[in-house]
Amino acid sequence: MSSTDRTIKLDVRAYPIAEPKGNVMAFASATIDDIFAVNNIRVVNSEKGLFVAMPQTKDKEGQYRDICFPVTAELRQQLNEAMLGAYAAEKE
Question: Do residues 26 and 90 make contact, with C-beta atoms less than 8 angstroms apart?
Answer without folding.
Answer: yes
